Structures
1.
Amino acid sequence: MRPTTSELPIGAIIISARSADDCLAHFSLAEADLLRGPVLDCPGGASDFAVRVRALGGRAVSVDPAYDVPPERFAERLRADLERVRAWTSTRPDRFPQGPDGRWHRLPSWEHAAETFMADYRRDRDEATGHYVSALLPSLPFADRTFALATSGFLLFTYPDHFDPAFHLGALRELLRVADEVRVHPLNDSARSPYPHIAPLLEALRADGVHADMLAVESPTDRGDTHTLRLRRPAAPADCT
């Protein structure tokens, strides 16, 4: 039986404008967690999560291959992707409840996050702050253990038709190379189908000495996204003197 329209995934990879509050819920983080050390958001998309980290006094870098264009071109793609999200969620009201304006009720917060992000992205281009880095997993331009925490949302596990298991393993190993802890959300694609290769993936990471566990979460964007993967790399060896 062919899946109905409402059961189909979203298709091509989108630039997400998830809000900072969404990210805190998705990754089971409190604001205090953001101040333990530098934070990497990869992919950062058009989220204002890293802006929130810096506003709290922390350090944060967003990485996304989409950052290779000037603000005007980025904003053009972002507008198109937000329209795709509006159209896609409108056919799934059971998963994405409508607000008073007849659109998915989270869209206003995404639009506000996008505005905050774009202002900061333009500032980054004008002032060369280094807050937004164009790079593509599984190769990141950072030294080992640069970050205390890396968050990765709505890429890994979300697009299994775009990325094979080898890519997923390489991407997670790279995130663990540059960060002591990695959190990934969600663990299913946009049609809510669980990622089918997660067991061998976790087995390979545990063989590397990585501690892996699942955190129960309540997603503000999709009630079906109920878990986040937390990965913690082995402690660095003590220096010999």
2.
Amino acid sequence: MMHKHISTALSAALIALAMLAAPASRAAAQTVGADAEIAALITLKDEALVDDRVVRLGDLFEGIADPALAETAVARAPSPGATVDIGARWLLAVARAHDLTWQPRSRYDRITLRRASHRIGTEQIEAALRVALADRGVSGQLELALDNPSLELQLPSSNEPSLAVTGLSLDSASGRFVAHVIAPANGEPVARASVTGRAVMLTDVPVLRRDLRPGDVIRASDIEWIAMPANRLTRGTVSSQDLLLGMSPRRPIRSQQLIRATDLQTPVVVAKNSLVTIRLQTQRMQLTVQGRALENGAQGDVIRVMNTKSNSVVNAVVIDTGNVVVTPTASAQSN
């Protein structure tokens, strides 16, 4: 009987202990659940754009409730315009150091971090160089050829995207130059570079729009103007449209090709071996007879022609297509 009483008392004690422990177990479960919920709220960003010189926790993670904690600096930002990838190991170390309940899903978790910047490219650099060259008296049409055509400067987004040339050295004979540039143009320089290259003066010259062959006559519609480096022009280069109009190529001339005076001739209007009408003119009479041209002739040229009836050869002036005239002047030129 007494044994039964002790057993009943022990059972009651165990039930009481279980009832006391139950709230503690529920509390522990609630704490774990709360931690899991908090951990789920803090997530890693896929990428971030940083405007400042430092990287902050809020740049890396979403869901940080404390604004002051989110503003905590954890690393130096990359150079303006640069991009870096940050891996899971470093991110986990940062999270633990600042009591963030974040865990990487795998060792491949990472974030791409890019520093915001203002880009000063080749176009802006060349524009500043043209101004500096003009101040040195080098103006007009200029072709700038930079030794490093991909040169660019990156400025922090907090700086104005301006540029200044602080030094310029120019060889006027070759066009070679060395310049020093800084950015921004005003205040403390953040970026600087040396720029080398060549400045070449350009000159407008007339060229052909299409390929022409000997016998073709150059007309205004065949001509266009292009800018060419002045150092490519020679003393014989044709620089006037008037010297082209009405002329004919002495040899084939391709479109866009520089034309020399020796490439041109007066158009042939009487071809060698072609039949022509020979006119004999004096103060008292005018006679015509058929002849054969023994050489090519342009308008105004004196050529040799043969009388097809008498086979005599005379010099005659080419008047136009198929017509030549024998005059005392032409006869004098034959002697």
3.
Amino acid sequence: MSVQRKQIILNEIAFWKKNNLLPEHYCDFLTALYAQGEDVEDQGKEKYSQALLAKKKKNTTFLYVILGAITALLIALLILITTAAFIPIIAAGIAICIFLYIAIKLAKTKSVMTPLLFVLSALLLLGISFKVWDVYFFDYPSVLIGLIIGNCLLWLFSGLLLKLVYFSVSGIVGIVLILFYLFRFYL
């Protein structure tokens, strides 16, 4: 019997023993039979502890990535709000491109980070829209309304294209609110 097959069988027996699928003495007998005198108990515990450490490290890394992304978003929004130059607009645009690139790469693996990166990109784009209006078109409120409608349409179409319900709903709600505002105050 090959080493791989023997290890698969031993892992399966350890699973049965751990989950009480067979009586413990049967599992011990089968383990002794397939192990042929090798020390299996230590290998199983070592692999189990390695798996636990890997899972804990993955969860910690995920937490740090989320905190880093939220921090980056808050810093970018703070810079967009407080600075009147075009440099933060370019920096936020680059951040949006990076977030979207990473989100598209992670979408193939169905990562939990994908929706978060899409939302961060959408919020940064909305912040850029407000900053562009504030810096270049402050005297023209109709440009602001156009930029907000553009963002809402982008959310709606990206929600429909990517099958993301929260973007579709956000786009529809935003457009309805803008139309309500226009009809109420301009008619």
4.
Amino acid sequence: MNIGICGLREADGTTPGPNRCQPVVPETLRPTRRTLPPEVVQPRPQDVTWEQILAQWRVVLFPQLVVHVQPTGRTLVNYDTIVYTDDNGVTVRTVTLLGFPVVVRATPVRYTWNFGDGTTVTTESPGSPFPAKEITHKYLKRGSVSLTVTAHYAASFDVAGTGPQYVDGTIPVTGPATPLQVREAVPVLVEPGG
């Protein structure tokens, strides 16, 4: 019955005419390509870099030192004001990066004192409280100032017990500001005994 629409069959078994009249020939099976799951690359201890450690853990690793002032809270113009900070020595912290324990050692080697009046001084000592007068500053005019100390840390890190790696240069970390009122003393004459 389809002869009028599709025509006669050819010698190869096909029927001339529209495609719907073509015999269904199974497609040859092509071998399928097996897709492998992506290879998972496990990090190695040597993949941990100092830049990664600093980016993620800087605030945790290095103490921000606070300036202690004597006299506390207020001082006088042209008076030796004593400053010092806590001597923490070596700070050791363990953090985790890329799944590995990283032990960081930080040692303050220099301190830069900013007295809040445009004066800075760098020392190798954290200073000492009275009566030492190890680090002092004289303010020349009255006002409100904020003092800070920047500790410069020498550092090393050890990833998963592979041995210490020393960091070039130092890491500067500035602590919070300590407010101070600078007052001016005014001499007053009084009579003895009266």
